[in-house]
């Protein structure tokens, strides 16, 4: 048991995994022009555990052992707050890009730890023991994990049945003595190119007829039959100058295909108990949306900071409309922050002492963030100015014909030269437009559940009895 | 020292005060057709202290003494939360109408207790001692208090200077050995017709030239020269059936005129120290907005409850658009609740241990409430239906020609007859339309500071350095 | 044939109609304390036809005959624009309250004229002839008309079937040689207390099984079995000072009960042709929403004017946030106006030359109005100030003790005394709060169809093929 | 006189102009890897004039002569509508990217034609004659034009004075017998790399002290001292598959530096008449915002089409929330379209018969578009799904290991395979995320004036007297 070094993590990725990028099989993800950025970004987790400034936040010492704090099963509000703080700190260090190589996986593990006990209780199965063993394996080896949950779904108005083919949701195609064989594909699986294990969870409620689809398990990324098709979105080369945030930072997304993959029984965590598909999906989501709202904090902070910075450089800090938009951004970001903290404060333990954040508050936080994100972009872009998409290249500052002219003419308020202002502009452009800005925007809406998913959970998590009763009393019809 | 009974409170109002209502001087406010409703409503505070179910929440026992919890100077988050809970409970009992006969006055006292020490420190004055004495007087006699802060202002784009006459802001017109004489008028002073004391505070920052306007003091309501012109808004007689909330509940608002009122020095809490006008105004507001967001909770709960109730009675609970609007209302109300709690949790003590809620969080809560209130009304009215303004009178149910027909035809989903549904509809109509609904709506925007005032405070309470610095680092120009 | 005088109109209402108000049968609606206001308001239509300033707009001269322009069957964009102009002018004269005693009825007649021909064509019936005869009767006798469309509906998630009783939608209970007998109740029927005829239309699509509910007809208001239960909402007495808009203006709303009412065949316009229930409902609505957006124009103008007026009196016209809110209001109102005009410009004739406004544009106009109305209220109330609900009574200005003080202290910018400002404030209060303001707000959402109804029509009226094809071409998958 | 061929246009660009791209001077813009896309895109204008399907719309025949319709000086609503139609058609053919090589220039010419007469009238100058001659030169030679208006501005809270250096606004540095010498820099000048002439206009009102800044003129792009620094934003190479809209379409934006450029008098259109700086700026903007709202129509249509297409492919067309968002998009787009048409219909001629669109309606249209654009993006991205940023590359469909799997697994509703769906997804991704999507979003807010500029014009164009008077009458204080 112990912490890995960044280098150990990198070495662990040279394991023969099947990764495809733009039609080519990738020999070594750690040296691939695009994926290596993601590897480098993921190293942040290991570096923070080594860095004296962040070590205390990044690790847990327990009974003489040391392990990554991400693996700490929360047993108090304090644990939830620390976890949130760590996720926020890592994302801030990652220039608004979440690291996510342990966050999402531990969210899934916490969900599995809670729900597997319930399955065992009803079905006299031994899932909890398996989950415990897998959890210890990951923690003790300081592994990185992906979670594959979102099935490709085909016709989204249908469940697993009534689809054009039966594999639109991942399913068990064979049950053997030593394990099961699964087939299907999951989409939007993050970091898979550079994690060690994939945890697979159902994506929705399943009926009796769907029991083959009620399956959860974990496999090493290099398992035979696991094919990762990496998305080239946002993969074009950029300079630090043009794209100060995203030039060297990347999270890979893959379509993760299970082309008849064998999973030994000790790695199977649900298999046919259809009535637990939904609880398991939600058990994960309960933690994962809390992770989500935690890692959004540096992003919304960056939006406020961008607005403040550009207003200052442009000399318009005191304009009434600018002040108004900045206040909107502050309120947007700080309401999110308050809700995140409150979700932890209102957290509750299950009967075995595992803490989860409050579902209503977490989902309100997520919906608040997601629902208002595009308006936030509007305000930041409004304050920054059109130069977000019309500025010169860094090379133009180096050219003798144009460099001094640009430094002069692109200046802002007194004391701000054109190059400084262009750098600031490029950061805001990277944050709010282009591939990286677009990635943030689409993730705002879709990652960790869509707007509609969050609304559904708000509806479910809210107990209507109190206010309904109050209304009846007020009406005199109680 | 001790708690007053409701009857003692009522008796105390027969003190010769000068109250005008629709051009007539009111002999006895406790028997006046309209004002007696406000007196009755205010009694809630005293009743709750007597009622075993609410006694513990309503009082504080300290060193063998007992006093109303409103007077508890907060020294912890717990105190703030309890105060908030008490205000919420009283307002809920008051059918969404805040009681406010002790809430606002103690907000002012807490502000005075904090700021007077700062004035004394700079000016070697003895205001704090006076405030302390006045505080003890009010607490020990279990008094009701109004706060008169909003000056009539004349041309709102001007301060006290440059107005058509010099009295648009309340000011000291004479300084005597035994006290001062003040002149001016305050507007929107709540409950003044039926409280014992008026605390007067400045409404804005004052410059050196405005020093006569930098004045704070307290006087009994029946002081010579104090004239209260009560607003007839919402005063028309209503039946419980038509207006189940407001028929018997009322908060009086007055224009409070100080027609050369003498104030003895021991009741003067600021007099000329212009640089403390703003701190004192804000010192009060800091508490008062927290009171405000606490007492808004039953109102937003009633909005959710109304939507749930009407959706149920109308048989449309499962309609997608109804679900959507209800979720919006839940998120609106519960985000407010989370921010209120968080404002208390983030509260801080000054160097003398007096706790205040967090200003940023409080103002975000207030702005969130106020900014979205009219949209909330839209959703509730949308779900309830046009019958909010087209329903029959209670007498039509009693009429043999029409009663059974209406009970039949105005029914809702199976099991709901027309009379029950009409009662529910009338409650929602009272809550969201008519004089009472309009009162709530205007207060949402204007009470305890306007939308712009809250935005200003958000801007001031937010420390921009962290996010600005983060943006610079991201841009590589730190 | 000819125009009636206001007095003739008034006399025509003394016809033994069964009107109930607060449980009492009303002897004479023209002298009833509340209803007479509605009668007086309705007289506007007749007065405008007599007034030289508005005569040309109000009447049509055709082949030597003269009749009210409301009855002009539109045959051109010009006709639609003139009709809109007349409705706007009458409503403006009515202090933002639509007159509606001919508007809605002619909307129904136009719809009937169009659809009856389609029914006849399919069913070889002779409805069109009957409608024509009824139309001429109304026009030539210059009658006032109500339209009863909205059934009481019971459980709104159900159609006529599956209700607790079969009468939740109006239906034919007997077919006789000389006519039919109908039973049911309609709600939100406007002006019925003081119109001559009621036109009854189906409120929704009907299936084969619902054929008894597919019925349209017209009856005189005093027909045996027609019982009108008038709503007391907004009926309390007010002074012109407190309520300058609504003190003398009223539109009555009734629950209109058809307690086995006989209708002779010549007054039956649909009876069992269930597949025409929806076309007829929509054929009416097509015109009626255009009427609606026309009569909303004075209301939105009044909101802008209120904001401009109060900003001026309060001395805040130049404040940035005020300017912003006024611009929002201008854009709100003028976008509505542009859409109304465009709905007429894009109007089209059917094969018989009857013009109808464009459905997509009309519904967008209505939705734009309705969807944003509450935000408009927020901005107006924000600019006006809290005195909307805290001002003094007119009697206080007359009282010697307080009159001069109030005139002084409630003043605004230089030159504006307190009485003028209070009058302005009361107008805005009447417009946006209280019974009248609440009536406007609820009507904004519910009258002439709810928000959801308008959205449905936008969806139906929009032909998706063009943009869908464009998207496919852009994607290269056309 | 006559129309140029695309090839003639291309040849005309090889004129020795000083264009810099990423620090390199561009030898030949027509062959430069990036700029040639913009040249190709601009050719659309010339191709449409040759294409029989679009020829009639694209040209004007007058007195035996033929010229591009862009140059038609509007003399009727019909002319404005045709111009709008042409701009819309060209942009639709340009895959939502406006062509703009004649649109903006003729907007400026129309403004100059109108305002120059006013200057002449006051100052007895001969500007109008010069503008006329220049107009004929451009029209008769079928030239392409850029307009440089937005000064770099430095500290945006300051005018030309009080800046760190005097050149933040373009100014006259020398007056000579034969012409003037100008210095300064304009930003966001579109298409300059591939147009023939640059028209320079002032960007704001100028005071007496700013008279050297009150300058307007036109110069050929290759004039000595004109330096164009082209923005590399959005210039990275893309495949048609990844970026079906923007792979081959580009509009170049430059910082246009006037490094002491000589302008002969016949090309000077304003020089020192500071009181006409604002009228000229607005005279241009009046036309240019109408151009803007015209060319936005294909963009908003593409957003509706994208939503419809993705809803269909994903099988969610009937989901209530999807229907709701589509209706929002329809209403957004069609309200824009109605306002554009209405701006033309309400157009008015000046005393010399030159028509201009209605300023209030045009600015409401622009603000409506801009203010809601980001919300439109949110809805489209919401419906499309996360695959906007996580899809595979085209090469993955060609790879034998993954091609069939992806075609299977990325399918949508029955009948839609994964490749078709990915193509559709990539189009929506190109439209709403990435460099092209970001470009559209920033232009929505900033091009042709910011949100605040449009609001200002709404405020100016609205005559407040009517509604203010109405409010006074309603209040009884008229």
Compact summary:
The structure is a homotetramer of 478-residue chains. With 478 residues, chain A is of the alpha+beta class. Helix content of chain A is 49%, strand content 15%.
Beta-strand content of chain A: 5-15%
For the terminal residues of chain A, how far apart are their CA atoms? 61 Å
Q: How many beta-strand elements of chain A?
A: 14
Q: Round the mean pLDDT of chain A to the nearest integer and report it.
A: 97
The interface involving the most residues is between: B-C, 96 and 96 residues
If helices are DSSP runs of H or I spanning 4 or more residues, what is the number of helices of chain A?
A: 16
Indicate the low-confidence ranges of chain A by residue numbers.
none
Read across the widest sheet of chain A, the strand sequence of neighbours is 2-1-10-11-7-6
The helix/strand series of chain A, from N terminus to C terminus, equals HEEHHEEHHHEEEEEEEEHHHEEHHHHHHH
Helix content of chain A: 40-55%
**Main beta-sheet annotation of chain A:** 6 strands, mixed
What's the overall geometry of chain A? globular
Q: Calculate Rg of chain A over CA atoms.
A: 24 Å
């Amino acid at each position: 048991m112990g912490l890995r070094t960044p280098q150990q993590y990198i070495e662990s990725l040279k394991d023969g995994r099947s990764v495809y990028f733009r039609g080519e099989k990738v020999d070594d993800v750690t040296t691939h022009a695009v994926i290596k950025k993601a590897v480098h970004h993921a190293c942040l987790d290991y570096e923070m555990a080594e860095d004296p400034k962040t070590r205390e936040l990044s690790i847990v010492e327990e009974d003489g052992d040391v392990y990554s704090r991400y693996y700490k099963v929360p047993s108090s509000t304090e644990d939830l707050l620390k976890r949130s703080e760590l996720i926020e700190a890592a994302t801030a260090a990652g220039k608004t890009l979440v690291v996510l190589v342990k966050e999402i996986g531990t969210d899934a593990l916490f969900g599995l730890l809670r729900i597997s006990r319930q399955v065992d209780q009803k079905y006299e199965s031994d899932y909890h023991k398996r989950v415990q063993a897998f959890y210890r394996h990951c923690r003790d080896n300081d592994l990185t994990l992906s979670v594959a949950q979102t099935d490709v779904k085909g016709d989204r108005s249908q469940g697993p049945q009534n689809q054009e083919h039966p594999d639109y949701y991942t399913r068990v195609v064979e049950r053997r003595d030593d394990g099961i064989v699964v087939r299907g594909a999951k989409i939007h699986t993050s970091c898979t190119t550079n994690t060690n294990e994939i945890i697979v969870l159902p994506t929705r409620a399943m009926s009796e007829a769907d029991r083959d689809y009620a399956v959860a398990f974990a496999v090493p990324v290099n398992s035979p039959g696991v094919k990762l098709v990496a998305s080239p979105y946002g993969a074009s080369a950029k300079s630090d100058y043009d794209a100060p945030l995203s030039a060297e930072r990347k999270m890979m997304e893959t379509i993760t295909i299970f082309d008849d993959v064998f999973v030994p029984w000790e790695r199977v965590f649900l298999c046919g108990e259809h009535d637990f598909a939904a609880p398991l999906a939600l058990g994960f989501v309960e933690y994962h949306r809390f992770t989500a709202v935690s890692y959004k904090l540096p992003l919304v902070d960056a939006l406020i900071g961008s607005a403040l910075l550009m207003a200052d450089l442009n000399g318009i800090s005191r304009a009434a409309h600018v002040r108004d938009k900045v206040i909107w951004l502050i309120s947007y970001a700080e309401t999110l922050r308050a809700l995140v903290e409150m979700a932890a404060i209102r957290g509750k333990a299950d009967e075995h002492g595992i803490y989860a954040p409050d579902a209503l508050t977490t989902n309100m936080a997520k919906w608040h963030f997601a629902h208002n994100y595009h308006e936030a972009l509007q305000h930041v872009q409004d304050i920054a100015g059109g130069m977000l998409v019309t500025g010169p290249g860094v090379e133009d500052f180096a050219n003798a014909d144009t460099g001094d002219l640009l430094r002069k003419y692109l200046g802002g308020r007194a004391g701000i030269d054109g190059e400084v202002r262009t750098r600031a502009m490029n950061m805001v452009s990277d944050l709010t437009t282009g591939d990286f800005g677009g990635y943030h925007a689409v993730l705002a809406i879709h990652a960790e559940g869509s707007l509609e998913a969050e609304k559904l959970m708000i509806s479910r998590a809210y107990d209507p009895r109190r206010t309904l009763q109050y209304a009846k009393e007020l009406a005199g019809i109680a």
